[in-house]
Design goal:
Blueprint: H1 13-53, E1 57-59, E2 62-66, E3 71-82, E4 88-99, E5 106-109, E6 114-118, E7 122-127, E8 130-136, E9 144-156, E10 165-177, E11 185-197, H2 202-207, E12 212-221, H3 231-240, E13 245-254, E14 257-268, E15 274-283, H4 285-294, H5 300-312, E16 314-315, E17 318-326, E18 329-332, E19 335-339
Antiparallel strand pairs: 1-3, 2-3, 3-4, 4-5, 4-6, 5-8, 6-7, 7-9, 8-9, 9-10, 10-11, 11-12, 12-13, 13-14, 14-15, 15-17, 16-17, 17-18, 18-19
Helix pairs in contact: 4-5
Amino acid sequence: MPDTTAPRKASRRPIYVAFGLATIFVIVLSAGWIWLRGQADARLDAAVQRLRDAGYEIAWKERSFRGYPFRLNIALTEARIRDRSGWALEAPVLEAQAFVHAPTSWLIAAPQGLTFVRPIGGPVRVEGKLIRASLTHLSNTPPNISFEGVDLKFQPAAGAQTFGLATAERVEFHLRQAPSEVGDEAGVWLSVKSGKAQLSGLLGRVAGDKPVSIEWDGRMTKISAFRGRDWPDAVRNWVRAGGTMRVQRAGLTAGDALLGANSGRLGVGSDGRLTGVMDVSLRQAPRALGAIGAAGAIPQDRADAAAAVATARQTGDLARVTLNFEAGQTTLGPVAIAPAPKVYDPR
């Protein structure tokens, strides 16, 4: 016989449970995003206030938060930061992004370019296909910092001094805390690839129309002491703790000329200028030093004397010499060629 029992209706309980769980998930996700936004807002304000207390000038026109539900995006318009020595960084728009599951790893971009201001040289506008930085591992000393620029163009403002580079195919900078087994150190890497020199500048005289490349690989000891109210204060504290920069590898290639550092150890004197010794290799040294003298970067007689020293120590087209930074002077072998580079202004 056929079953005449009426079929049971399917239970709707699983649908209600699923809908309830989805609602709870959305509420928790929304509450978490709002809490993270509040934390980011408060921490940004606290960090800005600490920098202002240390003498920095920081300002922006507008600040906005977006990215719900899985990201936290912060946008600043007409952002500007300036330190007491006169260095400044400006950007029409700065964008920062972090994922909700990794709120301490930030990616920062300047999609409309930026301008850096030199205390003496004046502003330089920077535009490119890509200008971005990352900030991660905030509990490290120092935190991990990286910068990457692709197809960059450098344009000094009207009335500003020339900048060494007109363009660069790629610029990278990385700062990393060393592994714990290495000790209290940090690695510093800088790379500039396929740059084009400003023809009116010193690099232009040396490189001509050929590419310019820069490399720097160094290790900073006693990095935990590198902190203070501002840049000069941080450098002084680092020096007092015995901090030095150990040069692993460095080089400047400008056309056929080459300055390569094979080793070295650098510090900073009480006058704010570089101290230490670097063992360097020079290719096409007489021509490069002649161009430096002709550009007025160092007195012509000193350039000629330094070229004679390099020639005497040359094998083929490569000369091995020592650069000394001492008592505020840079010497190539026995010849004082210029003041030592200034790391900070002690005033």
